[in-house]
Amino acid sequence: MLYYLFNYLDQLDFPGAGMFKYVSFRSALALILSLFISTAIGRRIIDKLQMLQIGETVRNLGLEGQMSKKGTPTMGGIIIIIAIVVPTLLCAKLTNIYVILMLVTTIWLGALGFADDYIKVFRKNKEGMHGKFKIIGQIGLGLIVGLVLFMSPDVVIKENMEVRHGDVIEEVRFHTVEKKSTKTTIPFVKNNNFDYAQLVDWAGEYKEEAAWLVFVLMVIFVVTAVSNGANLTDGLDGLAAGSSAIIGVALGILAYMSSHFEFASFLNIMFIPGAEELVVFAAAFIGATVGFLWYNAYPAQVFMGDTGSLTLGGIIAVFAIIIRKELLIPILCGIFLVENLSVLMQTFYFKYTKKKYGEGRRIFKMAPLHHHFQKAGNAGIQALIQKPFNVVPESKIVVRFWLIGIILAVITIVTLKMR
């Protein structure tokens, strides 16, 4: 909104109004606003949640410091959502299709997570929303995002082309014509491009339509997987918020690179017109998650609940899809991926051993993985990962996961130059 106001004032030669034309200025402003909003309203929302007795229900699982969390206000994801939406509305171009998609994603998954938390807190159902309804909500968002990217005439790219002399790349050029495409960025290969159409060569004359179908299915899968991964990661104070902030910085850099001719040429990735507005959203996202850490860092004064974790995961997934970097998610969101895999492995192995031996056995002492390091003793199988060791303090686990997240974010960007 401020963009349009100051654009009008700039036409009247109002001093300083032209600053709002620059993405860098608006991104910095969005970051400052989101930090201010999340810290300023955070205390009031926490007090309100305490007054309504919206506290975390904790089962005693034998984890260090676990019972001290009982009664801590949850549903704090409301703070994050407000701190993202308000600065974005104020600082971004609201006619930009990518900004619209990000706002829809934030509100959609925020509402889904809120409904889940509401059932847990007010209806005293510790399981929350039935899993199938949560999946339906995630699939619904995936369909919306995928179909909009397919149908909107504003969603176009300029493909990168390598000019080679022998085996040496002399320069990277871009097609002069903007076009719709099912191509995405993939590391370790020439041109850094992969076309989903290559998966449906058998479709013949319907290859283009089939490629978009595959693309939409990929969108649904990525949105569901990443949002659930963020949800599982939200088990220690500050872990999900801090990890998401790190990922947000990497995505913001990639969005800026993808919308800048020189930087896109340097990384040899496709140029995406309009993606620069996503930098403003990324700045608001980073500010909101960092501001939330003011209250969520150990020992937490508030938990984000599914209201926050589903939203953060969904935002990361849709953002990566929009800038055609979804195939980098396994590296960038490695923390989420490992947390997801640890639960799947634990569940599968437990069921398998129970069927085979009549007694369920575990790979980890507890899943998701971050709880494995909190729990003393042995889970039942004599594997290297099961050897007894001293329980790791919660704050140390979180910081170490953050450090791993930073390393993965750097590797994600570096991989684009490794071919």
Automatic annotation (TrEMBL):
<comment type="function">
    <text>Catalyzes the initial step of the lipid cycle reactions in the biosynthesis of the cell wall peptidoglycan: transfers peptidoglycan precursor phospho-MurNAc-pentapeptide from UDP-MurNAc-pentapeptide onto the lipid carrier undecaprenyl phosphate, yielding undecaprenyl-pyrophosphoryl-MurNAc-pentapeptide, known as lipid I.</text>
</comment>
<feature type="transmembrane region" description="Helical">
    <location>
        <begin position="210"/>
        <end position="227"/>
    </location>
</feature>
<feature type="transmembrane region" description="Helical">
    <location>
        <begin position="302"/>
        <end position="323"/>
    </location>
</feature>
<comment type="similarity">
    <text>Belongs to the glycosyltransferase 4 family. MraY subfamily.</text>
</comment>
<keyword id="KW-0472">Membrane</keyword>
<comment type="pathway">
    <text>Cell wall biogenesis; peptidoglycan biosynthesis.</text>
</comment>
<dbReference type="InterPro" id="IPR003524">
    <property type="entry name" value="PNAcMuramoyl-5peptid_Trfase"/>
</dbReference>
<feature type="transmembrane region" description="Helical">
    <location>
        <begin position="135"/>
        <end position="152"/>
    </location>
</feature>
<dbReference type="Pfam" id="PF00953">
    <property type="entry name" value="Glycos_transf_4"/>
</dbReference>
<keyword id="KW-1133">Transmembrane helix</keyword>
<keyword id="KW-0479">Metal-binding</keyword>
<keyword id="KW-0133">Cell shape</keyword>
<dbReference type="Pfam" id="PF10555">
    <property type="entry name" value="MraY_sig1"/>
</dbReference>
<feature type="transmembrane region" description="Helical">
    <location>
        <begin position="329"/>
        <end position="352"/>
    </location>
</feature>
<keyword id="KW-0131">Cell cycle</keyword>
<feature type="transmembrane region" description="Helical">
    <location>
        <begin position="96"/>
        <end position="115"/>
    </location>
</feature>
<feature type="transmembrane region" description="Helical">
    <location>
        <begin position="397"/>
        <end position="416"/>
    </location>
</feature>
<dbReference type="InterPro" id="IPR018480">
    <property type="entry name" value="PNAcMuramoyl-5peptid_Trfase_CS"/>
</dbReference>
<keyword id="KW-0961">Cell wall biogenesis/degradation</keyword>
<keyword id="KW-0812">Transmembrane</keyword>
<keyword id="KW-0460">Magnesium</keyword>
<feature type="transmembrane region" description="Helical">
    <location>
        <begin position="20"/>
        <end position="41"/>
    </location>
</feature>
<keyword id="KW-0132">Cell division</keyword>
<protein>
    <recommendedName>
        <fullName>Phospho-N-acetylmuramoyl-pentapeptide-transferase</fullName>
        <ecNumber>2.7.8.13</ecNumber>
    </recommendedName>
</protein>
<dbReference type="InterPro" id="IPR000715">
    <property type="entry name" value="Glycosyl_transferase_4"/>
</dbReference>
<feature type="transmembrane region" description="Helical">
    <location>
        <begin position="278"/>
        <end position="295"/>
    </location>
</feature>
<keyword id="KW-0573">Peptidoglycan synthesis</keyword>
<feature type="transmembrane region" description="Helical">
    <location>
        <begin position="71"/>
        <end position="90"/>
    </location>
</feature>
<keyword id="KW-1003">Cell membrane</keyword>
<keyword id="KW-0808">Transferase</keyword>
<feature type="transmembrane region" description="Helical">
    <location>
        <begin position="239"/>
        <end position="258"/>
    </location>
</feature>
<dbReference type="GO" id="GO:0016740">
    <property type="term" value="F:transferase activity"/>
</dbReference>
